[in-house]
Amino acid sequence: MKKILFCLVALTSMALYSCGKNDDSNLADKFVGEYDVTAEATLHNIPMMGDYSQTLDNLTCTIAKDGEEGDVILTMADRSTTGYVDKKGLHVESMVITETLMGASVDITVTFPVISEPVNGTIHWVSPISASVMGVSISGEADVTAIKK
Questions:
Q1: Euclidean distance between CA atoms 119 and 128, whole angstroms
Q2: pLDDT average, residue stretch 48-54
Q3: Is-contact 99 82, C-beta < 8 A?
Q4: pTM of the entire structure?
């Protein structure tokens, strides 16, 4: 009788353990990979210029796991930032990109929204962007599409 009771306890323990978190799954796996990126970036109300739009294509973005807990490193335009993936999607820290505009070096801050998981290998999001040009703060957005290679 003790052996039967012990076996039942062991089976129950195994069943309860298998109902817990699946250690083999990492939500970041849905995003990890290399992507071809196209973006339409627009800055609004630039002094003496008005709105300025630029299409950025032939960019590569890499999303790599950083451990086993859903943390990631996103690298794009030779710049890296960190983030994490949860059930809501991909959360990415802001990134600063330096561009030349009208002969001046401009730091553009890109803020990422929570990015939904890829659909058929494609991710799409709109990032708010901000910069300072000639001492004037300006804002804009970047409409981004990333297709997994």
A1: 22
A2: 86
A3: no
A4: 0.76
